[in-house]
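From the methods appendix. Each design record in this collection lists the tokenized structure first, followed by the designed amino acid sequence. Records were kept in a plain field format so they could be parsed without special tools. The example shown here is representative of the layout used throughout.

RECORD:
FOLD TOKENS (314 positions):
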């Protein structure tokens, strides 16, 4: 039985390779199917593997209190395994896909972001945290950044094999170019922009999370937040400054604009400084009503009464 399960796992990995899934997705889905088949072996074998057993497994995952994203990944991997490897039917009426939870992401104020970066342990950690905040790139993307991905002349960073196995170019300000040059002179990283314990090796995701956690703790910030929170801050603070939504979608590597739109709900400054189009317009009203003029700042000026102006309203 174990040989048969190992064969299925191998077939599934080969299927994902042929479909050109990203290495990260292949690894994640492979782990999911291994866990699912181990559960099947312990609790159900040698009974036939069918969608009733898959439904039971997903329900138990829900009851463990796992979040939507985890169970949804389980669903996607197991569904693909059934349809493309063991060629068993998958009844979507019996096993509906989980509805996405609509939780707002965590965001920090600009002042808190500054405090966190200032309390990072060294120049390497400060540069990494600043780069994530300035560019909004993902944790998986920042640790894979290579020195050759930085284009100082064009002020761009190339993201290779981002989420969905997609490449993209991220625009960066001159201040970040200057910072990276200083960082390079002081630290002299090899191959990857941020090295692990040894030169030329990839920094582990866990190390980056610890950097953020320790800096946040030293800064005295109690609010929850991970390295991904800096990505949320990038999007939210940009929107508060009036950055174009479609531009942000491209920079962040979002497949769907709706993913970017969710950050609008986090904006404080955007709501505080919303100006209605009527502001800055002068409207002359009939019947000797006052002339109301709104300045760009929203301040009203009321003049003396004025006579009829718009003939269409006579």
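DESIGN:
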């Amino acid at each position: 039985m174990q040989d048969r399960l190992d064969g299925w796992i191998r077939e599934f990995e080969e299927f994902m390779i042929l479909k050109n899934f990203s290495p990260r997705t292949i690894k994640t889905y492979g782990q999911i199917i291994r866990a699912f088949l181990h559960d099947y072996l312990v609790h159900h074998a040698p009974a036939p593997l069918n969608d009733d057993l898959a439904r039971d497994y997903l329900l138990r995952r829900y009851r463990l209190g796992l979040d939507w994203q985890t169970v949804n990944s389980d669903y996607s991997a197991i569904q693909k395994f059934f349809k493309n490897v063991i060629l068993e039917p998958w009844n979507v009426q019996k096993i509906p896909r989980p509805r996405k939870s609509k939780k707002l992401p965590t965001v920090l104020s600009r002042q808190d972001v500054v405090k966190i970066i200032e309390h990072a342990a060294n120049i390497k950690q400060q540069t990494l945290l600043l780069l994530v905040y300035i560019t909004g790139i993902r944790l998986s993307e920042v640790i894979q950044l290579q020195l050759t991905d930085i284009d100082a002349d064009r002020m761009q960073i190339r993201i290779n094999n981002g989420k969905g196995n997609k490449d993209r170019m991220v625009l960066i300000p001159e201040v970040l170019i200057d910072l990276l040059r200083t960082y390079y002179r002081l630290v002299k990283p090899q191959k990857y922009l941020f090295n692990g314990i040894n030169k030329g090796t990839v920094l582990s995701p866990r190390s980056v999370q610890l950097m953020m956690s320790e800096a946040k703790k030293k800064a005295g910030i109690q609010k929850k937040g991970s390295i991904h929170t800096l990505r949320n801050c990038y999007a939210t603070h940009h929107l508060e400054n009036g950055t174009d939504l479609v531009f942000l979608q491209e920079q962040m590597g979002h497949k769907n604009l709706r993913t970017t739109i969710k950050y609008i709900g986090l904006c404080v400054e955007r709501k505080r400084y919303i100006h209605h189009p009527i502001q800055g317009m002068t409207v002359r009203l009939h019947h000797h009503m006052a002339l109301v003029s709104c300045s760009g700042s929203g301040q009203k000026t009321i003049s003396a009464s004025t006579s009829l102006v718009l003939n269409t309203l006579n």
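APPENDIX NOTE: The chain has three domains: 2-84, 110-271, 282-313.
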